Amino acid sequence: MSLWGGRFSQASADEFKQFNDSLRFDYVLAPFDIQASRAWAEALLSAELISSAEQQQLDQALAELAQAVTVDPQLPLLSQAEDIHSWVEGELIKRIGDTAKKLHTGRSRNDLVATDLRLLCKQFTQQLIRENLAAVQALLEFAKRYQTSLLPGYTHLQRAQPIVAGHWAMAYVQMLQRDVSRLRDAGKRMDVCPLGSGALAGTTAAIDRQALAHELGFRQACENSLDGVSDRDFALDLLHIASTGMMHLSRLAEDVIFYCSGESGCFAMSDRISSGSSLMPQKKNPDLFELLRGKTGRVLGHLQALFITLKGLPLAYNKDMQEDKEGLFDALQTYQHCLAMLTFALPELSVNQDHAAQQALLGYSNATELADYMVAQGIPFRDAHHLTGSLVLLAQQAGVALEQLDLAAMQQVCPQLQADVYQVLDSQYGLHKRQALGGTGPSAVKLAIKHAEDWLHAA
Ligand code: ARG
Fold it and tell me: Minimal CA–CA distance to 146: which of 442, 435, 447, 426?
């Protein structure tokens, strides 16, 4: 049975019904619709719009329905109902008859769907925080395992300066910590209850909306009914966070794909998380990380889609808003799944330590150290930069590393250089110099790990 129809003399065309119905995707709102309905029935009792016996009957039937949906979340899909709200009401009517028809007193699907969606988003927000924390834990374990393993660091994808793999992993810890803080922040903003806004103008029922909001676990009731039924900022917030979070995972994935490539060879994946080629027997492909990178596009697309859907809508509810769900659900599930896959994959990833250490020294990545040495001899940095550049050119032309140039040859370019310059050119030297907060030096990385562990324990 449809929730409307009294003023119609013809039934909906099948074509229209199929186009209009949303049950096939909004059925996932069932537990939240039932939760909101139980609270609403209680509010109706307090407003003396239903009797205590009726409220108990409704509550009992709703509890049974909740149980049925827990056992089989796809149960609603067996019906022809228009949407999840129609399904819940229809099921209640089947179970308890006329009393069920009183449940919709003073409410609308407009305030109901906005409430259901917020309840779902609140739950997802907590789950996403937990998944991010687990991923941070996995990154920390990687960082500790490879706390001192040298790795070439890049800018412009040109070898720049040696770093340690632990420092690389801790950069992503920073990003995920920001994502957690964004989720917490959005969680506070979405914690406002629209139920009791009616269709758009507020409800005629004498409802204590603050009590209703608290009953549903919200911080407070929304303060404008037009905004209450039409606000989807909380969905945009989550889509934006999912997009940022996925962008972080995508950049991490890109780094891993590169470090696992034949050209770099600094990282290796276990067989458990890589796949082969149907044609080229030698291949071992980083599919897992490519999928993390690839799924990012989908999530970013859902953010754009909802912005564009909402941008021209007049107040208050418009059916366009039914389009908020599929992309949002897909984005949140994808983000959650990708975080879980990263957590799963990190222990399967290793650093080829000897090879990576050798690679870290190539490409004149100790040139900055040489320039700094000259500065210590009293040469202004700009001149030191130029002189070091000339020495790099000299070494390049001879096909050797800076530390392989002999002192006499170097002194021709820069007479201030002494024999102790070779200490400065050693791979460990530059690393140990970078001890200031946030650097790749051993004590700085150790401190970063300690800070992140403290943060995780407090989370
Ligand atoms: N299925 C609808 C949605 O998701 C529920 C709200 C319907 N409201 C209405 N006035 N037709 O947006």
Answer: 442
**Alpha-carbon distance 115 to 207, whole Å?**
16
CATH code of the domain made up of 367-425: 1.10.40.30
Domain 14-105: which topology? Fumarase C; Chain B, domain 1 (1.10.275)
Q: Strand pairing partners for 275?
A: 285
Q: Cβ distance 19 to 82 under 8 Å?
A: no
Which of 294-319 are b and which e, b meaning 16 or more Cβ less than 10 Å from the residue's Cβ?
ebbeebbebbebbeebbeeeeebbee
| Dihedral sign computed on CA atoms, order 267, 270, 272, 276 | positive
pLDDT digits 0-9 by tens, 272-312: 999 888 888 888 899 999 999 999 999 999 999 999 999 99
Domain locations along the chain: 14-105, 110-356, 367-425
CA 134 – ligand 1 centroid, Å: 36
266 to 61, 286, 361, 429: CA distances (angstroms): 60, 14, 13, 21
Does a cis peptide bond (omega within 30 degrees of 0) precede residue 316? yes
* CATH for the stretch 110-356: 1.20.200.10
Structure tokens at 247: 């962008």
- Residues with Cβ < 8 Å from 290, sequence gap 6 or more? 253, 257
d(CA 387, CA 365) in angstroms, rounded, equals: 16
Distance CA 392, CA 428 (A): 19
Quick: pLDDT tens for 103-153: 999 999 999 999 999 999 999 999 999 999 999 999 999 999 999 999 999
Question: Which pTM was predicted?
Answer: 0.95
Catalytic residue among 181, 261, 270, 277: 277
Please confirm, yes or no, whether 277 is among the known catalytic residues: yes
Per-residue tokens: 59: 């509550």
Residue 7 DSSP SS3: coil
Residue 83, ligand 1, Cβ within 6 A:
yes
- Give me ligand 1 centre to Cα 322, in Å: 6
Based on the number of CB atoms within 10 Å of its own CB, is 59 exposed (0-12), middle (13-18) or buried (19 or more)? middle
Q: In this structure, is the dihedral angle defined by the CA atoms of residues 290, 362, 372 and 169, taken in order, positive or negative?
A: positive
